């Protein structure tokens, strides 16, 4: 039986979509020890994996310890997290006597842990792959037509990275390599046809396994009985960018008091009462069962997170993307390039631009037709099964070739 270590950051979009892969691997005979924070313990254990916790420096999980008391090594959160997490896990991981390590591309500490333990490593990409021809930083920078550095790192960050490598006696690497490093096997959870310049990635090292669309979800207390019989407008900003209510106010102003129903997921950080009395056509709720809603959605409005985009495409739904950070900007541009949706700049979104975008998507049938074509591609892939097969085949080859 092959034993794997799995290293994940404490982020919903990085943990939950991977659980189907972990479960599939275990069902095929693998043994997995999964490192993450306590809030994901139950979900991880349900896959059959052994859960091992760590504490984090990341602000979203500040309730787990007093962030103010931590002595940060640098101004970069990725480097800080590595300094903080590695001492907690090195001996725990060593005791597992694993054969291979899988790490999320947001886990610098996972990459370093593999080198410390001298284990072969696999990257599970939560976003876009990169090679000599493509990286998503340059992709959106060129399309924005602005002259900004691809990577910005202060001297203290570079020095702290040198110190990190010296501490664990590993080969030093430049800060930029955090974002561009690859392993002999790199798994990408989107179709090659959706990935920009997908044809430039070699088929041996880069495996486009497709998205791990969830088979079920928790409906919670969402009022499904209030959904209209006609397809709805569905708006969400994901699980991270939900601190400010301003964008939701725009959604209400643009699409409230209309004939088409509007469903808004506001997350857990905003009190619904701040919006006052709602128009009759609006359902505004902290938690919305996204998979269920997308089966009943006319147009999806989101921040352009890849998980949500893939779930929308799996249902043939055209989109409006209002991106917040780099990989979301790249996704929004890609949606627009493939005529699957429209990108709106969050700094200049207005009621008028929202209504105009919706009008374009409804009047031009090419958007829905393209989304339905991509739907067939997404549905032909089985992310969990294909990823598990690639990982297990690769790990088997390592022992055969020894």
Descriptive account of the structure:
This protein is α/β, with parallel strands linked by helices and 402 residues long. It folds into two domains: 3-210 and 381-400, Rossmann fold; 224-380, Rossmann fold, CATH 3.40.50.2000. It is 39% helix and 14% strand. The chain has 15 helices and 13 strands. The strands form two sheets. It has a seven-stranded parallel beta sheet with strand order 3-2-1-4-5-6-7, sandwiched between helices. A six-stranded parallel beta sheet has the order 10-9-8-11-12-13, with helices on both faces. Strand 4 (100-104), helix 5 and strand 5 (121-125) form a beta-alpha-beta unit. The longest helix is centred in the first third of the chain and has 19 residues, at 77-95. GO terms for molecular function: hexosyltransferase activity; UDP-glycosyltransferase activity. Belongs to the UDP-glycosyltransferase family.
Task: Summarize the topology.
Blueprint: E1 3-7, H1 12-15, H2 19-27, E2 31-36, H3 41-45, E3 50-53, H4 77-95, E4 100-104, H5 108-117, E5 121-125, H6 136-144, H7 155-167, H8 177-180, E6 185-188, E7 206-208, E8 232-236, H9 246-255, E9 262-265, E10 282-285, H10 290-294, E11 297-302, H11 306-314, E12 319-321, H12 326-337, E13 341-343, H13 351-363, H14 365-380, H15 383-400
Parallel strand pairs: 1-2, 1-4, 2-3, 4-5, 5-6, 6-7, 8-9, 8-11, 9-10, 11-12, 12-13
In short:
With 402 residues, the chain is an alpha/beta fold. It contains 15 helices and 13 strands.
List keywords for this structure.
seven-stranded parallel sheet; alpha/beta; 402 residues; single chain; Rossmann fold
């Amino acid at each position: 039986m092959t034993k794997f270590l799995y290293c994940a950051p404490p982020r919903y979009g990085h943990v939950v979509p991977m659980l189907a892969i972990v479960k599939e691997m275990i069902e095929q005979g693998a043994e997995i020890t999964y490192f993450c924070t306590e809030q994901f313990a139950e979900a991880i254990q349900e896959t059959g994996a052994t859960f091992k916790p760590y504490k984090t420096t990341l602000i979203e999980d500040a309730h787990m310890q007093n962030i103010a008391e931590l002595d940060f090594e640098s101004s970069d959160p990725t480097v800080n997290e590595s300094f903080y997490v590695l001492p907690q896990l090195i001996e725990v991981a060593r005791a597992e006597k694993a054969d291979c390590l899988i790490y999320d591309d947001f886990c610098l500490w996972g990459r370093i842990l593999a080198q410390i333990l001298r284990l072969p490593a696999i990257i599970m990409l939560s976003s876009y792959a990169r090679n000599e021809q493509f990286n998503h930083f340059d992709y959106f920078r060129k399309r924005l037509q602005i002259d900004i550095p691809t990577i910005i790192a202060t001297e203290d960050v570079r020095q702290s990275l040198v110190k990190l490598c010296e501490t664990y006696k590993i080969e030093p690497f430049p800060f930029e390599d955090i974002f561009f490093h690859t392993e002999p096997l790199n798994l990408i959870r989107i179709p090659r046809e959706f990935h920009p310049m997908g044809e430039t990635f070699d088929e041996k090292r880069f495996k486009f396994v497709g998205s791990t669309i969830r088979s079920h979800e928790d409906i919670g207390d969402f009022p499904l009985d209030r959904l209209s019989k006609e397809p709805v407008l569905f708006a969400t900003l994901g699980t991270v960018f939900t601190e400010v209510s301003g964008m939701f106010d725009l959604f209400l102003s643009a699409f409230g008091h209309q004939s088409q129903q509007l469903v808004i997921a506001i997350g857990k950080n905003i009190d619904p009462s701040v919006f006052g009395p709602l128009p009759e056509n609006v359902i505004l709720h902290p938690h919305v069962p996204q998979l269920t809603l997308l089966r009943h959605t006319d147009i999806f409005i989101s921040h352009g997170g890849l998980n949500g985009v893939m779930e929308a495409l799996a249902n043939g739904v055209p989109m409006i993307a209002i991106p917040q950070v780099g990989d979301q900007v790249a996704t929004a541009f890609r949606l627009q390039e493939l005529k699957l949706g429209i990108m709106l700049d969050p700094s200049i979104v207005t009621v008028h631009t929202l209504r105009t975008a919706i009008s374009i998507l409804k009047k031009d049938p090419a958007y829905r037709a393209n989304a339905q074509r991509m739907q067939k591609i997404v549905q032909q892939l089985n992310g969990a099964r294909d990823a598990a097969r690639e990982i297990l085949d690769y790990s088997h080859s390592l022992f055969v070739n020894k």
